[in-house]
Amino acid sequence: MSGPVCELTMTSDDKAEPATARTALLTYPADLTLPAHRGPAGRRPARRSLRILMLSWEYPPVVVGGLGRHVHALARKLANAGHQVTVATRHAPGAPLDEVVDGVRVVRAPADPPAIPLETPHLLAWTMAFNHTLTRAALRAAGAGGFDLIHAHDWLVTHTAVTMKDHLKVPMVATVHATEAGRHQGWLPGDLNRAIHSVECWLSAEAERVLVCSRYMGREVAALLGVPAAKTTVIPNGVDLPRWRPDPVEVAAARSRYAAGGPLIGFAGRLVYEKGVQHLLSAVPELRRRHPGLRVVIAGDGPQRCELEATAGRLGLDHEVSFTGFVPAPGLSSTMASTDAMVVPSIYEPFGLVALEAAAAGAPLAVAATGGLAEIVEPGVTGLTFRARDTEGLAESVSSLISDRESAQSMADAARAMVRERYGWRDVAEATARVYAAVADEAEAARTSGTSGPALTTERMPIAIPEGNLLESAGLLP
């Protein structure tokens, strides 16, 4: 397969870029790294307070995965820095429809009466219904005052984001947290997957800037979604270090609950295929041969849980592997800290936030060298790495951490220092606010010069989606 994987939106005032420009891999100017990577002297606070409308399908108390935690922390830090932040999001039973929490106005969209379940076969129908109610909530929020820009988080809020952009005539920034093709190892196997991919292309085309969490994701959105390098900014996720500081009493309790006197290794995250838990389970018999009494704790839930529990049973590990279900952050940090190694065996990982959270909790790391994880963990310095899908390599890395406790502790200490120095939410919020300010300035300059600023889109061209493995054709498969 060759050529662009999607044809981007054209408006009445735009010219389509050559396909070759849209499919080239990104090159990153030096100033796209966070200021913390350049040291404290590199910090440049945003120039003024901005009015920001964020759109997210999850926000506390609705937290499904890392996206919800990301939006929550970013919104709070931006509000702390003096920006006026409104988040329009999904409603949760018992939660207020409109409230201010930690300086952030949260406007929640209650579900409409039609019974559309939130499950894979009905995901597109659910998303369309959700965007109808989310748009009304966002319009209600806009009625109390204008916004300088919109920040859309992932494809599930695209229809609302484009509607609000056209209605308010303000620019839009989008964060692509992951891609549908990436989640399926480069394939778009069915109509649902192809439809989601087309929405991702649409969102990226409508946005004035696209934010990604790693250099790997920068290359992915360039190759798969056709996002030009000049339109992309890399801003990693952040970690609230104090929130992940474990309670020693709870750490001891978790160790007693799960370890049974022998070594303990752990996993945390959504139980879906791309997280690679199946490869971790396959390595456990060899690890138990090397380290008698070894146990495993798997914290998280998801559609693959029953299958993974069945796999553990087939391997004779019913009593050696504990599936805890979803564990909130306070308990999760203690569970992580109780382990001799936290394993991140992902096949696809845009960033690898759980690795930073485990590092913040003080756990030694063994991670797959794929996607954003390869940019976080330096082998032998902040953890150990292995090739994705490599069961033997996984077992070797974990065994090394268990066998050499002194070295494992040294790497864990270095990883925690790395989190503190490079991945604080203050730095992430400052970098994001600088993008906002640049986008708002461009829109204001366009208005001042007599041009229309963000154009009202009057024509949208169909999105062509080719066959084949999109990651393989882009050279991005691990």
Q: Short description, anyone?
A:
It contains 18 helices and 14 strands. It is of the alpha/beta class and 478 residues long.
Describe this structure in words.
The protein has helices at residues 19-23, 35-38, 66-80, 123-143, 158-168, 180-183, 191-206, 215-225, 248-258, 277-290, 305-314, 329-337, 353-361, 373-376, 391-403, 405-422, 425-448, 470-473; strands at residues 51-55, 84-90, 98-101, 104-109, 149-153, 172-175, 209-212, 232-234, 264-268, 295-299, 321-325, 341-344, 365-368, 384-386. It is an alpha/beta fold. The protein has 2 domains: 19-238 and 424-473, Glycogen Phosphorylase B (Rossmann fold), CATH 3.40.50; 242-422, 3-Layer(aba) Sandwich (Rossmann fold). The strands form 2 sheets. An 8-stranded mixed β-sheet has the order 3-4-2-1-5-6-7-8, with helices on both faces. The chain has a 6-stranded parallel β-sheet with strand order 11-10-9-12-13-14, with helices on both faces. Helix 4 packs parallel to helix 5 (158-168), helix 10 packs across helix 15 and helix 12 (329-337) crosses helix 13. The model is unreliable at 7-46 (pLDDT under 50).
Strand content: 5-15%
Contiguous runs where pLDDT drops below 50 for at least 5 residues? 7-46
Q: What is the overall number of helices?
A: 18
Number of strands: 14
CATH topology of the largest domain: Rossmann fold
What is the level 1 CATH name of the largest domain?
Alpha Beta
Spatial shape: globular
Biggest β-sheet description: 8 strands, mixed
What share of residues is helical? 40-55%
Radius of gyration: 22 Å
> Strands across the major sheet, in which order?
3-4-2-1-5-6-7-8
